[in-house]
Design a protein that fits this description.
Helix content is about 55%, strand content about 20%. The strands form four sheets. The chain has a five-stranded mixed beta sheet. It contains 16 helices and 17 strands. With about 600 residues, the chain is of the alpha+beta class.
Amino acid sequence: MGSKILAAVRKTNNIRLKNKMIISIVIVVFIPVLLVGIILTASYRQNVLDQATQQTMNNVDKIKKHVTDILRMPIEISNKMQVDDRLSNLVNSRYETKFDMVTAYWDFRYFRDYVQLYKEIHNIRFYTDPPMPMSNWDLLSADESVKNSDWYQEALDKSSSSISWHYIPDETKENQPYLSHVRRIDFPLHRSYGVLVINLDQDELNGILSEEPFDTMIFDSKGVIVAAKQPQWVGRNIDSMNFAKDLSDKPSGAYEFNYEGKPSKIVVEEVVPPYSRNGLKVVSVFTIDSIVSDANRVSRLGFTIIAASLSIAFVLIYFTSSFLSRRLLLLNRVLSKVSMGNLNVKSDVDGNDEIGLLSKQFNHMLASIRSLMEEVSESQMQKNLLELRQRDIKLKMMASQINPHFLFNALESIRMKAYVKGDTEVSNVVHLLGKLMRRSIEVGGRKITLKEELEIVHCYLEIQKFRFDDERLTYKLHLDDAAESVKIPPLIIQPLVENAVVHGLGEVEEGGLVIIDARVKSDRVVIMVEDNGGGIPEDKMREIEFACQDLEDAEEHRIGLRNVHQRLVLTYGEGFGLTLECPPGSGTRITFSIPLGGNLHV
């Protein structure tokens, strides 16, 4: 296989330079440009279509929220009516005279008040069973057509907690159909019941869809369109419309289908109010051509420009390659004379392009050789100087490594002196200081175990106890056995403890206490640092919280807490930062958690 490729490459050596350039331009430029143009055009078209689909889905979601808000109001009204004694008393009372009944009807104004109070409600009526002796526009006795209707029978068959939505005529409004909330209302004390019907305002429903950019509609569980951007669609069944006859069975989502003979996108969203056994569907549809027409026009324009540009480029490349070929042939003749040993020739190829520069460099070749020798000598000197500098850097690095060891050895000598002289307290503190410094220097950028981190904290607190005394500072440290080997970033807990000692207990004269607690809870290790100092003022607390969230390194920020918080967030994610609690007069508590496995969360 390799030999075949090598043979094919060698065959290209027999092709003239002008032809090679043309072939190369076609392969390297023409074909890739066409492929990129096709890919970008397709991607741009698809991106425009995806954006339109997403925008439509967002619009449908907004419509769903508006419709849910409108449907919520009749549900609240029916919930009130279900427990309202006034309606029960009105329906189940026995009146001595018709005048008493008319007076009772007149005094019961709650249905009318709801209609006037809420613009979403168009009308409210209640069908009684058994029938009332008299009816008005609010309380009705169901006639045979109502009793035999599906929605009325369905309401009677269901419990009072079940709500249904139907597009039904209102006999009190000239049988004009409305989207209606239907619910059975029971009066257990009187062993009677009725059916409450609340009509929604048609203009409110249509108004939600009027500003939509695409054809949008809302239909009920039976496929009846209850609202639409085009009002003439209201009242029609979805099955009678060719473009949407299969929509009633579609779940929520986006689909492709033919709309008026054109490829289109449709977005379907279900709206099921609380306590309802049926709901509504919101549908928005747009043709793909209407969305990608601009993209197609831009694509055609782009391909026209690309074709024109490539044609002009081909002509220019042809003449340019011919001109270059002639100049290279002239230079080749001069090089042939040089190969024969004639070093006194001179190239007459002029110009400042690459070939012209090559000709000038040829004329100055002998002088360039001497210059090259000087450059080689200078380069060798620079190389030697660089090696000396590198050795010097290595020596300084070794010295920087010796200094910490010298410091640790000096601290160990001081500790031994103090121990020999019987001052065990000073000896112990010097030992802890050396241990603390060694641990702080050795950790570097690697992670350490929680046990190692708390050993650093222990050393720090023992040194601070030596500085203050036992009456002013004590501490408690607890670490669950299961959390000892959990890996954490180094120097995470120690700055929090230092903050508690320096800031939290700075004004405490005696009885200062710092608690460090690390416990395993579920899949996390929860770490708490608490002190019993004077706490943090509310304004200072806000400054600290702002500093922890601020990414800028402002001078006024409390750097320790901010660095710890941001290291935790960068390592484990947003839910693993610091949490500050400062109840008035009870000190400060700082908590954070890390995954039990110590793995990165982001």
